[in-house]
Amino acid sequence: MKNYKEILRKLEVELDILETETEDILVKAEKGIKLTKLALKDIRDLVTVCEFKTVKSEITFFKKTKPRLFSKLIYYVKLFNIESKRPRSSSKSQIKYFNKHIDRLQNYFNDNLEFYQYYRRNAISLDEQYFLRGKADIRLYSDTFHFFTDEQFSTSHDSTVATILAYDMLIVHLKSEIDILEKSNGVDAINQPFRKKSKLFWTGNKTDLIELIYALHSCGVINSGTAGIKELAVAAERLFNVNLGNYYHTFVDIRSRKSNNTKFIDILKEALLKRYQESDA
Predict the structure, then answer these.
(1) 3-state DSSP call for residue 275?
(2) Phi, psi for residue 102 in degrees, rounded to 5
(3) Separation CA 254–CA 233 (nearest Å)
(4) pLDDT given for residue 189 in this prediction
(5) pLDDT digit string (tens) for 29-82?
(6) How large a percentage of the chain has pLDDT more than 90?
């Protein structure tokens, strides 16, 4: 079952090129749908004729590999539907439209909260029920019928994982579009924590600063936890004279790191501990 990894690598390269070189969102979505459908078909053809060597490898495929691919298809289909119906009137109308869709996407997480929490905390106790073929159980409350209609290539919850991943990406896109609209509409002008230009400059990696911002936000230590990510990012940009770009998208990349998704936080801890030791010497 090695070939499906090659198909995935090829698709990721194609999608990276697509995201970089195609500005029109609808064109991008259409091409993304075609590319992911083709890759999904090729991988299905492999999976249905080859056996997994172990139960663990089958669970890994349906818990991580297939959802990663299927989420791209869901993302591009939803993206096309949302953007094709996007209001062409005022920025205010467009922002309202996008916020409405963000609420709908968030509702999906709330409606599937038990499984969402199971997946997010990397639990494994129910993996054999959720991610092995032939384990279809209506009592598991899956929201998909794929595992009834395509038993060779579906489990009860692989599509649910794919939907979670896709909706994460969609929320990132929609928030990014809202940021662009607000900036063009002058909304940011009301949030200026630094009237004078700061003399501080962030000389580290932008990704590290974004990781730090999300850590502070997660701890709720700014304004008793009421400050939003956007407020913190804007403040950091002005304090450190840096443009963080699409920090929502960067956060998704940080969270998806296979090796260490708290890399900068760990570096900070090590540096501080070293300073303690040197001070005691």
Answers:
(1) helix
(2) -60, -40
(3) 16
(4) 43
(5) 999 999 999 999 999 999 988 888 899 999 999 999 999 899 999 999 999 999
(6) 40
Q: Sort 41 into a burial class: Cβ within 10 Å, 0-12 / 13-18 / 19+.
A: exposed
Neighbour tally for 24: CB within 10 Å: 10
To the nearest 10 degrees (0 to 180), the angle between helices 25-49 and 66-84 is 150
**If 0-12 CB within 10 Å is exposed, 13-18 middle and 19+ buried, where does residue 66 land?**
buried
Give just the sign of the alpha carbon dihedral 208, 211, 216, 222: positive
Rounded Cα distance, 133 and 119, in Å: 18
Mean predicted confidence (pLDDT) in 121-148: 74
Q: What backbone torsions phi and psi does residue 33 show, to the nearest 5 degrees? A: -60, -45
Residue 232 dihedral angles phi and psi, to the nearest 5°: -65, -40
Q: Which residues contact 197 (CB under 8 A, 6 or more apart)?
A: 241
**CA gap 237, 66 in Å, rounded:** 37
**Contact assessment for residue 108 and residue 144, using Cβ atoms and an 8 Å cutoff:** no
The candidate with the shortest Cα–Cα distance to 76, out of 39, 123, 28, 109, is 28
Q: How confident is the model at residue 245 (pLDDT cuts 50, 70, 90)?
A: confident
In this prediction the pTM is: 0.69
- d(C-alpha 210, C-alpha 188), whole Å: 19
CB-neighbour burial class of residue 90 (10 A; exposed 0-12, middle 13-18, buried 19+): exposed
Closest CA to 264 of 208, 216, 210: 208
| Cα–Cα distance measured from residue 33 to residue 103, given in angstroms and rounded to the nearest whole number | 24
